[in-house]
Every structure is written in structure tokens, then in C-alpha cells.
């Protein structure tokens, strides 16, 4: 087994999180796949088991799990400043891009022609998701019971339409009972056994046996301090808006609504979108149904978590209501988008920075980790179902195969799984292929 890599400097981590923010296409599964490939496989900043342990906790929480996972790993590496930096840089590029695209959309009524590039990126996203399911599944599904949990999750979410929170709760229940009756089935073993190629797995900087750092040790005092500080920050932000614009102003109303929404986003962005539509479109009239559909398309074609569509909702609401007057619509939209983003993501930071030490304290007790192991198995099935969902939309056009997309997706999958090409290189190559094909077809 090779020696672990050298300690990661804060500046190096900042560069990585910023880069991830710009290339994190593909929703949570694609983003988690990118982090896994970079942080576990290539850079070896964190071991497989600790990566999955953190991911399983994030899957239990409301909010964007990929963003929360970035916050968690950043916090493990560089304490609270590292967690805050990782989360902010993961979201900031998406916010900037969406503000720019929302401005173009509202000012000129159309989005720049990026169809060719996206036609290449979308098959790559399917391949990235498949690669994530393969890599995580090859290490997680170590026995028939965990394979069964994964298969049940796939069938439940893909064929039966079972809500994602129920799948997570069901898997946790299996682990809770199984961890007491058959704990050996939920011990994943050492991540250093072998890689997918059967060679010894190299050591990681944050390894299975790396002692919990001082800042990650649980204490009730730290839990209370971070929880109170997070709640105070949110209340202070809303109170400041209410003081300036009145409690019934659009900005305080947006802050209150999206802060509440952030606590209900179990199951990902798609699960909460009907709730957003009901209030943003029908109750508050921040935008209309057609604009909401266009915003979803923009969210799908930009990096960052899909829940960032709320920034579009905020921008359009600020622009439409001309909060700062008819001559300052862009400023109103930009401020509203930032307000919405702040209240949407604040709970995620609090959940991780407050609850992370508690999660770290459970790593050695299989009775406590068994529910998380079962959730990890279910996640493999959920990721596979997402690949099927994406594939049906990317590779088929009204039931007819789209051979260009199939060819690009197949090449991307081979590059990722067989030749272990980096995610960024794969996305760039596929984007160029899509652009060239669009010119070829005229």
C-alpha cells in the first residue's frame, strides 16, 4: 500500500472547489461522481469508506446532498473555514452564470444558442452517472442483502414511483434491524483491499484509520454553538430585510419562503419543485408557468445543484416587481437572486457544521453505521435509476434512437471506466463533439 498524499493546503483546496463549481453538471449524481473520481480515486484526499459515510449522512438531510458533501469534506480538511469555502465556491459559479442568463432571458427573451454543446454534454452526464453507480456499487454491494436493497431502491423509484425519502427511510430501517441481527453483513471492510482493477488501494490523506481531528470531535457545546449561530444568522438576515423593506416586502417574503423550502427539500430538487411552483407562480406571482419551465431548462444546462433554479425565480421576481424602480431592474433581480440563494443554502451549512462531529463519532460502531451502509446500497440503485431516466431522454427522440448521442455516451463511458479519463477532459471532449456535430448537421 502506497503512502498517503501530502497534506492539502487551503489554497489548493480552494482551487479545486472553485473548479468543481464551474464543471459540476449532471445534478447530484453527476456531481457526487465527479467528487468521487477526483477526491477518492485520483487525489486521495479521503478514503472510500469515509466518503460514503459522509455521503450517507448528507442523503438523510433536506437540501442538495452534493453541496452538503462538499461542505463536509471541506470541513474535515480545513475546519469551519474549509467547509464554508467549499460550499460557497460550489454554489457561487452557478449563481453568477444563472444571474447572467436570467438577465439575458428577461432583457431579450431568449437564451444563447448552446444546444450543440449541451447535446454533447448530456450523453457525457449519463456516462458519468453510470460510472458513479459502477464505482460505488463495486465497493458497497458486497453481499446479497445489500444488492437486494439496491435493486429494491431501483425498482421503487424507477418503476413504482416511491418517494425518495421513503426509500431512504426504508433502507435505514433495514440497516437498523440488520445491524443488530447480522452485523457482519453491514461491515464494508477496509477500503484498501483492492480497487476495481484488483490492485491494492492506495492510502488516503483522510484514511479509514486516520484519527478524528480535534475540530471534528463531538461535543454538545459545539453542536449548540453552531446551531444557535446559524439560526441567529438567518433571523438577522430576515430581520434586516424586514427593517428596510417592511415585513410584507417581496425580499423578506422571498427570504422567509425559501428558508422554509430549504427545510422541505427531501428527495432532491424535483421533489420540491411542485411546492415552489405552487407558491412562486400561483400565490406570490413572482413569475408565470412558462417562465418557470424556461428556468428549469436553464437550471439543467448550468453547473451547480439543480435547486439553483430558485436563483432564477428570485431574479425574475425582482425584475418583474421592479423592486428598486423600473430603471434598476437588473439590480433588483440580482439582489433577489442572492437573497433567495442565501436562505436556500444556509440550512445546509448549519446541518453539516453542527452535525458533522456527531456523524464522525459513529464511524466505529457497526450498529450505528449499518443504517448508513444500507442507505449507501440504496443510493447505488437510485443513481442507476437516474442514469436510466437521463438515458431515456438523451438517447431517444420520440422512441427513435439518437445515434449521435449514443455514440458520444458510449465513448464517454469507455473513457471513464476503461481508461479512467478525468471527468473534466471527458466533458470538454464531449462538448466539442456535440458542437462539431451540430455544425455538421447544419
TrEMBL record:
One MF annotation (Gene Ontology) recorded for this entry: chromate transmembrane transporter activity
Top-level division of the source organism's lineage: Bacteria
Transmembrane stretches, start-end: 20-40, 84-105, 111-133, 145-178, 223-245, 257-277, 306-324, 331-354, 374-396, 422-440
Keywords linked to the UniProt accession: Cell membrane, Membrane, Transmembrane, Transmembrane helix
GO cellular component term, pick one: plasma membrane
Compartments where located: Cell membrane
Membrane-topology annotation of the record: Multi-pass membrane protein
Broad class of where this protein is predominantly found: membrane
Pfam families with a match to the protein in the record: Chromate_transp
Family label: Belongs to the chromate ion transporter (CHR) (TC 2.A.51) family.
NCBIfam families per record: 2A51
Stated name of the protein: Chromate efflux transporter
Organism: Massilia cellulosiltytica
Gene: chrA
